[in-house]
Amino acid sequence: MRRLLAAFAALILAAPAFAVPPTALQAEDVSTLLKPPAQGTRVIALWALDCAYCEANLDALATFRASHPGIELVIVATDPVSQAAALEARLKTAKLDSLPTRAYADATPDRINFLLDPSWGGETPRTLVIRADGTRDAASGLLDAARIDRLIR
Questions:
Q1: pLDDT of 28-58, one tens digit each?
Q2: Among 73, 81, 69, 70, which residue's Cα sits nearest to residue 25?
Q3: pLDDT 10s digits, 131-153
Q4: Nearest Cα to 17, choosing from 127, 73, 83, 100?
Q5: Residue 41 near residue 132 (C-beta atoms within 8 A)
Q6: Is the model's pLDDT at 68 over the cut of 60?
């Protein structure tokens, strides 16, 4: 019986996390995404397939979130949702495929950029922070743990 339980536990631990495919993000969805959470902090990590630093940025944010309860991390690809397979593959390789992911599904991606952050020029990676009290901050570029901590506070 112990061997059976040990084998079952090993199987569960070896199984991959449930992958979450990207869902469409349209202009009318942005206001819901930007709504302050009831408690804690929502971090929106904007990235793109052609971004050299995005994977490292997503990894840093996911690592930070794992040790900080109350942080909701949402990944948003600025690539079209029609590239879902490529987005999923990239996130799976980075072991980030279990996080909620959105991808642009609007004919005018610049409109979504503006709705997300009017001061954003479209560069990636971009990180938006929305706190329960309604305050917001944003940063462009690669983040490390210390910069994430300053941004979230």
A1: 999 999 999 999 999 999 999 999 999 999 9
A2: 81
A3: 999 999 999 999 999 999 999 98
A4: 100
A5: yes
A6: yes
**How far is it, in rounded angstroms, from Cα 132 to Cα 147?**
20
Are the beta carbons of 49 and 130 closer than 8 angstroms?
no
Task: Please state, in angstroms and rounded to a whole number, the distance separating the CA atoms of residues 105 and 136.
Answer: 24
Q: How far is CA 70 from the centre of its chain?
A: 15
| Token digits of residue 138 | 């944003």
Please give the DSSP secondary-structure letter assigned to residue 27: G
Provide the whole-model pTM. Answer: 0.86
Domain boundaries, the chain: 19-152
Assign domain 19-152 to its CATH superfamily: Glutaredoxin (3.40.30.10)
C-beta separation of 46 from 87 below 8 A:
no
Angle at 25 between CA 22 and CA 27, to 5 degrees: 175
